[in-house]
Model the fold of this input.
Amino acid sequence: MMRKRMIGLFLLPALVFYIGFVIAPAIQAIVLSFFDTSGFSDARRFVGLGNYAKLLGDEVFWKAGANTLLIMVIGGVAVFLLAFGYTMMINSGIRWRKLFRAAIFMPNIVAVVAITSFWSFLFMPRYGLLFSLLKHLQLDTLAGIAWTAPENVFWSMLLGLVWLSSGFFMILIMAGADKIPSDIYEAARLDGAGHVETFRHITLPMIWDVLAITYVLWLIQALKTMEFPYAFGGPNIDSNLYTTAIYLYVQGFGQRQPIYALGYATAIGVVMLVVTTVIVLACRRLMRRERLEY
Amino acid sequence: MLKLNRRVATHIMGALMVCLTAQPAFAATRLVYWSMWNEAEPQAQALKTIIGRYEKSNPGVTFQVVWNGRQNQTKVRGAIAAGSQIDLVDQDADQIAAGLVRENQAFPLNTLFDAKAPGDSVALRNVLMPGTVDLFLKDGKPYQAPYIYNTVNFWYSKDALTKIAAAVPQSWDELLTMCQKAQAKKLDGLAIESNVASYNALYFSYLVERLKGSGAISRILDDKSGAAWADPAILAASGMERELWDKKCISADARGFQYPQGQQTIAMGETVAELVGSWLPTELADSAGKDFAWGSFPFPTVKGGVGKATDLQAALLSFVVLKNSKNTTQAIDFLKFVLSEPSQKTIAEIGNVGVTRQGVKWPGALASAYAQASKATALTPLVGGMQTKLPDFYATIFEPLHNQMFLGQITPENFVKTLQAKTKEYWNARASGQAVAQNQRSDAK
Done:
């Protein structure tokens, strides 16, 4: 009994902070989403579900949502394929394993703004690296494509985002893979298994738990994506690069456009919270498997 | 004795009262100023100099300055909600109009413009650039003190114009001719930034205002049925925008230019001009170099249009005094000082920007812009005031749609048709559907 009380006592500060800084603001945000308010004063007008109804007809919101979904799905597939590829390559016994691992992870320790400046320069028409390379290779038709034109700019941004994120997820996957006893791999090799078979039949099932967590982390990250597209799009971000998080920021914080629709922005935030919760729960359920002991 | 003492005490009390009431008006006052500048910027340095001078000439007045940078108004919003005392705020006039003023957080400044600045013999409203005081009136009252003036017009390289042997265009047709001459010399006529939709919308707003007259955009926005977009001038303006691409005034690869790549092509000598604000020479100062010969010309007139070449779009930067300030008199006194001739000269010289006071010389590269500002016959805010009047409509409906049309993803016909339908939808969905009752145009007298 005493022990239970002590545990409760030690947990109390954390609980107070969690309620004060997470739960209470979240409840306040939900309440705020039912109001029309600019946030400049206490003046607010109750609109019920008006903000949510407005979201239904807001094409820019849906476009931002579609972009977020594309990042989550297409970006997710690409990030994990790359991360798996890197893991297979690095675990295949190549020389300078640590060097490759560090090189692939390195973009994650560089400021996002610096990374995005590089990617913007890469795709820049007329002077960009890609343009120069394609011109050098005499691929004039490809060089003539404006990779940052409105119809392409999202995909160019996504490429950079995938490249940046794959290193981080590779490290997580590798951390799981490194825990697999090496004798299992040796036994598989003796039985004639190649890299792909080893990965498919040993690595993948044995790191499934890690993968499930990693994928949930990606989903949450994808749903909140803001810095990379925002920095890629520059100070005057093109709406083709909007994600729901960016759109929330644009609506609520008067950036460039003097829009101070705090109630509406909060409604976007609440929708994001609900979507994130639903997707994470669904993902956890879909990826649930019996745990392998080794 | 007692009687005498009483008399003495009364005199002492009286003397004390006189002393207390006769103190300098601004004794021991601390003005809190939240600034849109970063401390290292030249404009901030200019303001620091002015604040220093003001403090010196007004002993007892001190300043607490918070250099917030461009997110100033957003930060001010949070501070107001938290009950912080702020006296002065500055920001882009358009943003203030749609923010602090619209939300009734600003203090009216009639007394400022009726008063004389130090060293002046006439009221301030008579010494400021035409139209600047009245541009953002709300219910007939001024709430902003504009102190920096950016004109919106074509900025060009004088060397490039000489190279292509073209005259400064006065009409739309002459602009197209300039482009043809540029092409003949393997230069691009005009630069754009595909991702800066608000720059691209300047073409539309100016064309509509040249066709229909200054203030036309604001009038169209007053129509909640969407039918006003069906005016043939709207389709004509859209068609003229596309003409710039069809006639290769703007190069095809500019569809991919991400700010600031388009404007850099002017510094690199590949493009002649860009439609943008008078901040361009400052932004390109490093890449273009000190000796770069800048020129500017007003948006040209169009055939059959009623708008004048002297009708100007302006991007002003203003101070506001907050409504909840306890030092409104002192704050207004400081604004008089900011708008005085010596202070305005300091802003122009150190800040390297145009200012709102007539007769104060603008930096060399902006000389042509000064001439346009002084001769302006009417002023409207950026994009004809659309951002200020209906910021959410502009950001979520007009701007994305216009950029699609401008960059060739939809036709002008489709643009106009969709705009009509979306405007109707917008007003139907808007529960309290009133546009801001603020001026969106001022006659420059």
Observations:
- The longest helix of chain B spans residues 2-21.
- Residues 10-150+314-382 of chain B form a domain with the D-Maltodextrin-Binding Protein; domain 2 fold (CATH 3.40.190.10).
